[in-house]
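Thread amino acids onto this structure.
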């Protein structure tokens, strides 16, 4: 899970075996922080819909990897909640001017 800054701690685990007695010890060999940046699918969708251009639901669904019916449901919900301004007509989002 990322922390509040978006950083993820990656822990490299190891097992050590004693050559004399055969005892094994497991533990962390090293840790590093990684940052995974990029936009979420929701942010990508909102950016496309707020671009001011007509947006094809089929194109957006391919880009996001979602079923077109689900994308239409998401867009309808966003319109109802007032997150975006526009309307859905025949598989196309048309923004309000």
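Threaded sequence (97 positions):
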């Amino acid at each position: 899970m990322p922390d509040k800054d978006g950083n993820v701690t990656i822990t490299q685990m190891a097992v050590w075996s004693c050559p004399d007695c055969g005892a094994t010890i497991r533990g962390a060999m090293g840790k590093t922080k990684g940052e995974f940046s990029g936009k979420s699918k929701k942010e990508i969708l909102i950016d496309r819909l707020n671009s001011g251009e007509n947006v094809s639901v089929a194109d957006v669904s391919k880009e996001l990897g979602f079923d077109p019916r689900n994308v239409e449901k998401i867009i309808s919900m966003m319109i109802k909640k007032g997150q975006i301004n526009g309307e859905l007509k025949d598989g196309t989002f048309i923004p309000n001017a």
